[in-house]
């Protein structure tokens, strides 16, 4: 079935309408490119056609390239994948350049005007195609998002968007759109110069423009074109490029190949004529697509993330369990956040705490959150009222009547939680699912307080709830499918990404992040310079070093978890060396950011001013410091081996969840695609060798798990053995 339709009206304007069948949003496929190419040829060859308008048959223009196609392009590129990819990309450029030249000769004579009319969102190739047209019209649709978000999934705009946007806006002005994937609504996109006009009826405006006999030569095809803001060897351009290079390397720490490649494409492209610049862009794009990091990022951050959001692990036979009325017990930090995100999703919320004052404070969180949004022009007073009208703050459990899901977020205490579960049960009906937001207590134990343990489940949010995209759903031993479906349908309603794991100490995310923090603290105890620990973490792509992370989550929480873990494990407890350091820190009153004193020092405004120099008095750095890679391997393997053990022990049942959960849950080096993708990148055999070395030098916690050793011996990869294709076989 056709993805692009072609029609010519009585005025001689050909309209090419993009309308991919069976999808709510257009995405570009290889078939689509072929059809577009053929329609352009028809329009340019037909003397009755005066010009062309390219638009969409849907409410939006396009969401971008089908990233599954990019993933496949590489696999199908034959014996010489780099060449295959480069030629594929150049083929795409050929079509776009044909649109841009529109039949003009080499003296810029002749040709037909081609305009883009965007009814709504235009992302990625959905903006790169309009950028190749001669004028871009967009509807005045404040919900529309316009931009080039490719960098977010580990690639960069490789359909000419990089070269064209830099030439249209200048390198400096294009930087936030290319390097940060910044999206704008049509009015802001016009103000930035990305699109040309905002119109009530963009198709009519585009047709009128096409018929007005406009000049269609792009500035960069004119003689004497100068790049806005200056090319690299212009004094102003020099400043821009030196600054951009420093900024990109500062932000990415050199671990994201796409950002560097983008910058190279922009810099080198700026020194040469347009058609050469496009070839350079295509070469750098190929270079990025050939890097295993981009494959892994696309797989985890796009394909698998979306699959999980669409219910890849949802019990298929259970009917829709969308939540209509949600109860939240405990209006503290987490409960208040859960109430906010549920109200944003249009769900009615009853927010309960012990005292009315506490419940009101929880509801007021939504109020202050919306006030901040209003100040920044991102929300309206009506929207705020709308959200607040959905949240009832009370101490009265009878208000829960009719709730179909209740989430408990009271103090982390088994007895208090059990008492709350019992009270909830008395107030709700027989089909209500009860969930706990506990971060450490086994779900199976908490389910003992429930009359119907099959309808009891863990729904573990991360803090701050409104920002963190992952929700970890935990099945207790008796949790049934309906509870799992309820939790997943709720997470879909609030537009977050779920993973479903089995019950075990610390579930999945905390299980992996605690050893990371502990390894950092352990090194400080051994005399490794704290700055080396923190920088090693950042240079391997972790968003926060372990010492900063424990400052953020608070040192007394670390102490509390250590005490509880020790009590549970007895003599097998392995982290005494870590406790020496954090117990000492707690004794010094250095509890982390909230006390404005931790591994870091803070100023009066609570801003970090640097690592705390007082630490050296108790834990002086040793004269001999380890190699950077040794520190990095300790920090990475501390997390990764725990992920492997979670898979081996059946806590994780799907490696996609392990990878997506790691990146969204605790920021595990996103460039790697997640712990399992990283292990596949270096190979199980090398991982086992590295682990053996680490175990010999630093202890048994690094001993390779049996599963990894077995995979090394058999030459297996995680995605080969446990990936969706292997599971389906
Ligand atoms: P908090 O101390 O900010 O809030 C707890 C709230 O529960 C308080 O308002 C308290 O008054 C209320 N409460 C206590 N007993 C109650 C009862 N019997 N009935 C009604 N309300 C009661 O704590 P928090 O940080 O929001 O954590 C809540 C839960 O979420 C804990 O189980 C915690 O482990 C878990 N959790 C916390 C985080 C985090 O980062 N803070 C992350 C994930 C999960």
TrEMBL record:
Which Gene Ontology molecular-function terms are recorded? enoyl-CoA hydratase activity; long-chain (3S)-3-hydroxyacyl-CoA dehydrogenase (NAD+) activity; NAD+ binding
Q: In which pathway does it act?
A: Lipid metabolism; fatty acid beta-oxidation
The 3-hydroxyacyl-CoA dehydrogenase NAD binding domain covers: 325-503
Q: Where do the 3-hydroxyacyl-CoA dehydrogenase C-terminal domain residues begin and end? A: 507-602
Signal peptide residues are none
Q: Does the keyword Lyase apply?
A: yes
**Keywords, sorted A to Z:** Fatty acid metabolism, Lipid degradation, Lipid metabolism, Lyase, Multifunctional enzyme, NAD, Oxidoreductase
Catalysed transformations (reactions): a (3S)-3-hydroxyacyl-CoA + NAD(+) = a 3-oxoacyl-CoA + NADH + H(+)
What GO terms describe the biological role, i.e. biological process, of this protein? fatty acid beta-oxidation
User: What Pfam family does this protein match (any one)?
Assistant: 3HCDH_N
Key word Lyase present = yes
For this protein, the record's CDD domains field holds:
crotonase-like
Q: Which family does it belong to?
A: In the central section; belongs to the 3-hydroxyacyl-CoA dehydrogenase family.
This protein's name: 3-hydroxyacyl-CoA dehydrogenase
Q: Which organism was this protein described from?
A: Rhodovulum euryhalinum
Lineage of producing organism: Bacteria, Pseudomonadati, Pseudomonadota, Alphaproteobacteria, Rhodobacterales
């Amino acid at each position: 079935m056709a993805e692009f339709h072609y029609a010519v009206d009585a005025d001689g304007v050909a309209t090419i309408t993009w309308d991919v069948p069976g999808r709510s949003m257009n995405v570009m496929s290889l078939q689509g490119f072929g059809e577009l190419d053929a329609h352009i040829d028809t329009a340019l060859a037909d003397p009755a056609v005066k010009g062309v308008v390219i638009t969409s048959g849907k409410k939006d223009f396009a969401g971008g390239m089908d990233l599954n196609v990019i993933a496949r392009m590489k696999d199908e590129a034959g014996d010489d994948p780099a060449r295959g990819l480069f030629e594929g990309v150049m083929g795409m450029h050929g079509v776009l350049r044909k649109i841009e030249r529109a039949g003009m000769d080499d003296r810029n004579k002749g040709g037909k005007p081609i305009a883009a009319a965007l009814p709504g969102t235009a992302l990625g190739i959905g903006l790169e195609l309009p950028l190749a047209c001669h004028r871009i019209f967009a509807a005045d649709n404040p919900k529309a998002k316009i931009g080039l978000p490719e960098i977010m999934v580990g690639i960069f705009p490789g359909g000419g968007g990089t070269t064209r946007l830099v030439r249209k806006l200048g390198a400096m002005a294009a930087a936030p759109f290319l390097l940060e994937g910044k999206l704008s609504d049509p009015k802001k996109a016009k103000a930035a110069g990305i699109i040309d006009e905002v119109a009530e009826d963009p198709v009519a405006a585009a047709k009128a423009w096409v018929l007005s006999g406009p000049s269609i030569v792009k500035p960069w095809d004119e003689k004497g074109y100068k790049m806005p803001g200056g090319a690299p060897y212009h004094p102003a351009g020099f400043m821009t490029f030196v600054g951009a290079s420093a900024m990109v390397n500062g932000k990415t720490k050199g671990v994201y190949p796409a950002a560097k490649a983008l910058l190279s494409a922009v810099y080198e492209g700026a020194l040469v004529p347009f058609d050469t610049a496009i070839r350079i862009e295509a070469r750098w794009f190929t270079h990025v697509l050939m890097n295993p990091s981009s494959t892994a990022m696309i797989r985890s951050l796009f394909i698998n993330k979306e699959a999980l959001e669409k219910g890849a692990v949802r019990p298929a036979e259970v009917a829709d369990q969308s939540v209509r009325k949600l109860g939240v017990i405990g209006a503290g930090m987490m409960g208040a956040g859960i109430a906010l995100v549920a109200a944003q999703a249009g769900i009615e919320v009853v927010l309960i705490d012990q005292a009315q004052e506490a419940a009101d404070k929880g509801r007021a969180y939504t109020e202050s959150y919306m006030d901040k949004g209003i100040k920044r022009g991102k929300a309206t007073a009506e929207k705020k009222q709308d959200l607040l009208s959905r949240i009832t703050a009370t101490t009265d459990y009878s208000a829960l009547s009719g709730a179909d899901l209740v989430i408990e977020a009271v103090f982390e205490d088994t007895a208090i939680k059990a008492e709350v579960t019992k009270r909830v049960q008395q107030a709700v009906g027989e089909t209500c699912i009860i969930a706990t937001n506990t971060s450490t207590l086994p779900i199976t134990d908490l389910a003992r307080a429930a009359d119907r343990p099959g309808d009891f489940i863990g729904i573990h949010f991360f803090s701050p709830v409104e920002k963190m995209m992952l929700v970890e759903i935990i099945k207790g031993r008796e949790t049934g499918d309906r509870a799992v479906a309820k939790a997943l349908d709720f997470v879909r309603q609030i537009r977050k990404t779920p993973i479903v794991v089995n019950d075990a100490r610390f579930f999945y995310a905390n299980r992996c992040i605690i050893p990371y923090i502990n390894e950092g603290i352990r090194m400080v105890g051994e005399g490794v310079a704290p700055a080396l620990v923190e920088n090693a973490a950042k240079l391997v792509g972790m968003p926060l070093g372990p010492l900063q992370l424990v400052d953020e989550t608070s040192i007394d929480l670390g102490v509390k978890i250590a005490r509880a873990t020790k009590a549970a494990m007895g003599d097998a407890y392995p982290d005494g060396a870590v406790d020496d350091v954090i117990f000492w820190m707690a004794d010094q009153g250095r509890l982390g950011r909230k006390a404005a004193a931790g591994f870091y020092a803070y100023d009066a405004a609570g801003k970090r001013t640097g690592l705390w120099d007082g630490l050296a008095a108790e834990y002086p750095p040793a004269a001999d410091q380890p190699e950077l890679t040794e520190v990095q391997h300790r920090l990475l393997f501390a997390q990764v081996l725990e992920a492997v053990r979670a898979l081996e022990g059946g806590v994780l049942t799907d490696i996609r969840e392990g990878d997506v959960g790691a990146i969204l849950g605790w920021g595990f080096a996103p460039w790697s695609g997640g712990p399992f993708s990283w292990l596949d990148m270096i190979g199980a055999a090398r991982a086992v060798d590295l682990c053996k070395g680490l175990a010999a030098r630093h202890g048994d916690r690094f001993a390779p798990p049996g599963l990894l050793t077995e995979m090394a011996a058999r030459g297996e990869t995680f995605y080969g053995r446990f990936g969706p294709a292997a599971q389906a076989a």
